[in-house]
Write a structure and sequence with these properties.
Layout: H1 2-27, E1 30-36, E2 40-47, H2 54-66, E3 75-82, E4 86-94, H3 99-110, E5 120-122
Parallel strand pairs: 1-5
Antiparallel strand pairs: 1-2, 2-4, 3-4
Helix pairs in contact: 2-3
């Protein structure tokens, strides 16, 4: 009897935790992934419901990242809006271009309008 009650309580707890996590992820407006290699980083930032024109926002982002031109030499740049009004900012840099520089360029370009980014690296 006690085992069955504990089982039900655990199941209820897990269902609530899953629902809470799904709700939190649905509210997330912006994400940043950083792929690490030995000599370079690949940054990919995605933001939902961006209402600025692609040209205006891309121009601001590249201009603000250029402040770190000694470290953030960009290759394979991509800056576009995709279906569903999702904005994608995607590029490679040498490892000297750290996440703080990319965060700064994003912040100076959009402030809190689309959310703050945190670029987590992975191999």
């Amino acid at each position: 009897m006690i085992f069955a009650t504990l089982q039900k309580a655990l199941l209820l707890f897990l269902l609530v935790a899953i629902a809470f996590r799904a709700s939190a992820e649905a509210k997330k407006e912006v994400s940043c992934d950083r792929r690490n290699t030995l000599v370079a980083y690949k940054y990919k930032i995605r933001a939902r419901d961006v209402d600025e024109s692609r040209g205006d926002l891309c121009g601001k982002l590249w201009e603000n990242l250029y402040r770190f031109s000694g470290s953030c030499i960009v290759s394979a740049p991509k800056c576009e809006k995709t279906e569903g009004n999702v904005f994608v900012w995607d590029f490679w840099t040498p490892i000297g271009c750290n996440s703080g520089m990319v965060h700064s360029a994003w912040w100076e370009s959009v402030g809190v309008k689309y959310g703050d980014i945190k670029c987590n690296g992975y191999w």
